[in-house]
Design brief:
The complex is a heterodimer of chains A (417) and B (269). With 417 residues, chain A is mainly alpha-helical. Chain A contains 14 helices and four strands. In chain A, helix 1 (19-32) links the parallel strand 1 (10-13) and strand 2 (39-44). The termini of chain A are far apart. Chain B is built from nine helices and eleven strands. Chain B has helices at 17-30, 43-51, 62-71, 119-131, 156-167, 177-185, 216-227, 234-243, 257-266; strands at 6-11, 35-40, 57-60, 77-82, 90-95, 110-113, 140-143, 172-176, 194-199, 207-210, 248-249. In chain B, helix 1 (17-30) runs antiparallel to helix 8 (234-243), helix 2 runs parallel beside helix 3 (62-71) and helix 4 crosses helix 9. Classes of the chains: A mainly alpha (417), B alpha/beta (269). The interface between A and B is medium-sized, with 16 and 26 residues. The structure holds fe (ii) ion (2 copies).
Chain lengths: 417, 269
C-alpha cells in the first residue's frame, strides 16, 4: 500500500517505552488533540508495537494506517476514529487570573459562561469539559439558563462566602441576661417560630440542587451557602429560644400547613418566588421588627446577622424571578397561579398564628403592662402594613403590575413564610 | 402453536448479557421481527439445544461453532459475526528474567495456559506452537481451568495466566491479544517484567449458528434485523458497545480452519 499522500498532523517520539509501559500515556493525549480523521505519527523502538496497535486500534475504533521501519525504529501512522471521541474544545484560550490576589467565582463565570441549554447526558462533567459519549443521561430537570441561573449568581455566591459567620463564637452568648418570665416566654416562642420557618428554608432549596444541571453549578454553590446560612439560623435561633430558660414554644398548624405547601413545590422558579421573594422578603420586615424591639443587644445582634443573610436570599430570589420573567412570557401567569393555588390550599387556616401574634405584641410592649401591651399591639398591626407595603414594592420591582402586586400580596400566607 | 418468533440462545457469561439481548430484542421488534432469547449457563447445553431444535439460533463461541459445523456435517447455517470477531490472535508472553529469547527456549519452562475450552488462551496457541515445533509435552504446562463451559468468554483464565506470569511461577503464558492489549491499556501490566515473545496467526471468533432446517423466512428476518443495527444510532450503539463491536459482518468459514485442525490434533471434540 502506498500512503505517501497521508501526512500526520502531530508526531510523537515514544522512544523505548513499551506499549503498556508508558507509550499509551503519550499516544492517547496526542490523539485527544486531533479531530476524528486526524493522523498521528508515532515513532517507537518497540518491535511489538504494530501488533499491539493493530488490536488496540480495532477496539478503540482508530485505524492503524501503516507501520514502516525507519532509521532507529518504527514509524506508525494512526488515524483517529470518530467513535468514542470526546466532544468539545480544549480551553486553550482561557484567560483566568487573580485580581489583587483574589480569584472569585464571578471571574470564572465570565471566562466560562453559562450555556443557554444544558444536556443531561453530560452528567457531572464540569462546564467546558470535553465529554466522552456513551455516558448515562442523568435525571436533571433544570436544564435551561432562563429557569436556572440569574446573571449575578456568581457575585452573590462570592458575597455569601465572604459573609459567613459563626453561631458558636460570634454571638456574645455570655452577655445574655435573664428576662422577666412573660418576656422570656415570648422570646422563646418567637425564636421557635423563626426556627420552624428556617427549617423550611433549609429543605425547600435543597430539593432543587439535585435537579439542577451541573453546568449551572454556581446556582448550586449559591444555594449551598443559603443552606449553610439557614442551618446557622436554626442553630442560633434555637439557642436563643433556650438560653435563659425561655424554652421552645408552640408550633401552629397554620405554620405547618403553610410550610408544607412550600415543600410541595416542584418548579424551581415558583419555589424561588414563593419562598425567597414573598416568604423571606416578608421575613426581612419581621426580623427588623424583632431587632427594633429586642430586649437586649445580643438578641438584636442575632436577628441583624440573620437579616443580612436573608437579604442575600431575597436578592437571589428576586434576581432569579426577574430573569425568568424577562425570558419567559408565560411566567407571570404561572407565578400568579402558584400563589393562588397555595392560597386556596391554605384557605381557612386563619390569621397569624396566635402565639406568634401575642409574642410579637409582648416583645414590642417589653412586658405585660396593659398600656405597654396596647402600644405593642399597635406596633404589631403596623408590622402587618409594613410587610404588605414592602411585598408590593418587591412585586412591582419584579415586574408585576400594581393590580397584580396588590392581589398577590393580599393572597400571601398569614404565616409570613 | 404456529409461531414465527425467532428463539435465540446465548450464554450468560456476564450480567451485561441481559441488557444486551433485551436491547437487541427491542430493536428486532421495531424492525417487525419477532425475536426472543433464552440464556444458557454453558455452551455445551446451548449447542445440544440447538441441535435438538429447542432454539432457532445460537450465539456461539468459535469452539461451539465448529462443533455445530461438525455435528451437522457442515450443513449448519452461519448467519453473522462481529467485526471484532475477525482476525483474533493469541500472544505468547514471557517473563523477561526467564531467559526465553526464541520459541525453542520454551522447552522445559513453565507455560501458563487458560481454560481447556478457551480458544484463544489454550487450544489455538498450543496448536500454533506445535506447528512451530514446540509440543505441549516439551513444556511444563500450568493450566487454569476457570469458568469451564464459558469457552473463555469471561477472560478469567487469561487474567490467571497474567497473574502467574507477574507473580510466578510461570515463565511464559498464552493469552488472547484483546486481553493482552486492554490490560496494558488499563495500566495493569508490568512491562518491566513481561514482554511478548510471539504472536500467532489470525483466527476468527464468535458466530450465529442455525440448523439447516431453520425456516428460510426466519433466516432472512434475522439477517435483516441484525444488519439494520447501526453504530450511528445511539440506541443501537449502546448495545453494540456492550457486545463489543461496531458493525455486524457477514459470516466466513476460513477463519475456523485452524481451530478444526487443533481439535483434531488435540482430540478436543
Ligand atoms: Fe434564614
Ligand atoms: Fe433564608
Amino acid at each position: 500500500m502506498n500512503h505517501n499522500n497521508v501526512s500526520a498532523a502531530v508526531a510523537i517520539d515514544t522512544g523505548d517505552l513499551p506499549f503498556g509501559g508508558g507509550m499509551l500515556a503519550l499516544v492517547r493525549p496526542a490523539l485527544d488533540l486531533l479531530q476524528p480523521g486526524g493522523v498521528l505519527a508515532v515513532l517507537t523502538r518497540q518491535a511489538s508495537a504494530p501488533d499491539d496497535f493493530s488490536t488496540w486500534c480495532k477496539v478503540e475504533h482508530h485505524e492503524l494506517i501503516e507501520s514502516d521501519a525507519q532509521p532507529g525504529g518504527l514509524r506508525l501512522l494512526l488515524r483517529k476514529g470518530g467513535l468514542g471521541h470526546a466532544r468539545g474544545t480544549l480551553e486553550d484560550g482561557l484567560n483566568l487570573a487573580p485580581v489583587d490576589g483574589r480569584l472569585d467565582a464571578a471571574a470564572m463565570l465570565a471566562q466560562v459562561p453559562f450555556p443557554a441549554h444544558a444536556d443531561p447526558g453530560t452528567g457531572f462533567a464540569p462546564r467546558g469539559a470535553m465529554v466522552e459519549p456513551g455516558g448515562p443521561v442523568y435525571a436533571f430537570r433544570i436544564n435551561d439558563l432562563d429557569h436556572a441561573a440569574p446573571p449575578d449568581v456568581a457575585e452573590l455566591y462570592d458575597q455569601a462566602v465572604a459573609a459567613q459567620w459563626n453561631g458558636e463564637r460570634d454571638i456574645a452568648w455570655d452577655k445574655l441576661k435573664p428576662l422577666p418570665r412573660a418576656l422570656q416566654r415570648a422570646v422563646g416562642q418567637i425564636f421557635t417560630f423563626l426556627a420552624e420557618n428556617e427549617l423550611s428554608a433549609l429543605y425547600v432549596p435543597s430539593r432543587f440542587i439535585a435537579r439542577l444541571h451541573p453546568h449551572y453549578v454556581e446556582v448550586g454553590q449559591f444555594l449551598s451557602t443559603q443552606l449553610m446560612d439557614e442551618a446557622r439560623h436554626i442553630d442560633v435561633f434555637l439557642k436563643r429560644a433556650r438560653v435563659g430558660g425561655g424554652g421552645v414554644g408552640i408550633s401552629h398548624a397554620t405554620t405547618s400547613a403553610s410550610l408544607h405547601s412550600l415543600l410541595m413545590l416542584e418548579d424551581f422558579t415558583e419555589a424561588a418566588f414563593l419562598l425567597s421573594v414573598l416568604g423571606e422578603g416578608t421575613f426581612l420586615d419581621l426580623l427588623r421588627y424583632i431587632e427594633e424591639h429586642a430586649p437586649d443587644e445580643v438578641t438584636a445582634d442575632i436577628v441583624r446577622r440573620a437579616r443580612n443573610d436573608e437579604t442575600r436570599h431575597v436578592h437571589f430570589g428576586m434576581s432569579h424571578v426577574k430573569h425568568a420573567l424577562k425570558h419567559d412570557p408565560t411566567m407571570y401567569a404561572r407565578l400568579e397561579a402558584a400563589v393562588r393555588k397555595r392560597s386556596a390550599t391554605l384557605a381557612g387556616v386563619g390569621g397569624v398564628p396566635y402565639a406568634v401574634q401575642d409574642s410579637l405584641t409582648i416583645l414590642a410592649a417589653g412586658g405585660t403592662n396593659p398600656e405597654a401591651v396596647s402600644r405593642g399591639h399597635n406596633k404589631f398591626r403596623e408590622l402587618m402594613d409594613v410587610m404588605h407595603t414592602n411585598r408590593v414594592k418587591r412585586l412591582l420591582n419584579a415586574g408585576f403590575t400594581p393590580t397584580q402586586a396588590q392581589t398577590l400580596s393580599d393572597l400571601h400566607t398569614p404565616n409570613f413564610m | 402453536m404456529p409461531d414465527n418468533t425467532i428463539l435465540l440462545g446465548a450464554v450468560a457469561y456476564d450480567a451485561k448479557v441481559v441488557p444486551i439481548w433485551e436491547g437487541i430484542r427491542t430493536h428486532f421488534q421495531k424492525q417487525g421481527v419477532p425475536m426472543d432469547f433464552c440464556l444458557f449457563s454453558n455452551y455445551e447445553r446451548q449447542v445440544e439445544s440447538l441441535l435438538a431444535g429447542h432454539i432457532d439460533i445460537a450465539w456461539n463461541t468459535p469452539l461451539a461453532h465448529v462443533r455445530v459445523r461438525k455435528r451437522t456435517g457442515g450443513k449448519s447455517i452461519s448467519l453473522g459475526m462481529r467485526d471484532s470477531d475477525r482476525d483474533f490472535k493469541s500472544r505468547v508472553i514471557v517473563r523477561k528474567d526467564a531467559g526465553i529469547r526464541t520459541l525453542a527456549d520454551l522447552k522445559g519452562k513453565t507455560l501458563a495456559v487458560g481454560s481447556r475450552d478457551s480458544t484463544q488462551a489454550r487450544i489455538l496457541p498450543l496448536h500454533f506452537l506445535k506447528q512451530q515445533g514446540i509440543d505441549a509435552s516439551s513444556v511444563k504446562l500450568m493450566a487454569f481451568d476457570t469458568d469451564v463451559g464459558k469457552h473463555g468468554d469471561t477472560g478469567t483464565s487469561e487474567l490467571d495466566v497474567l497473574k502467574a506470569l507477574h507473580d510466578g511461577p510461570a515463565h511464559a503464558g498464552t493469552v488472547g491479544d484483546l486481553i493482552w492489549v486492554m490490560e496494558q491499556a488499563a495500566g495493569r501490566v508490568d512491562t518491566r517484567k513481561l514482554e511478548v515473545l510471539w504472536t500467532t496467526p489470525g483466527f476468527d471468533h464468535c458466530m450465529f449458528d442455525a440448523l439447516p432446517s431453520l425456516d428460510a423466512s426466519k433466516v432472512e428476518a434475522f439477517k435483516r434485523g441484525l444488519f439494520a443495527m447501526k453504530w450511528e444510532n445511539p440506541e443501537h450503539r449502546r448495545i453494540l458497545e456492550l457486545e463489543g463491536l461496531k458493525q455486524w459482518m457477514p459470516p466466513r468459514e476460513e477463519g475456523y480452519a485452524s481451530l478444526t485442525a487443533a481439535l483434531d490434533e488435540q482430540q478436543g471434540w
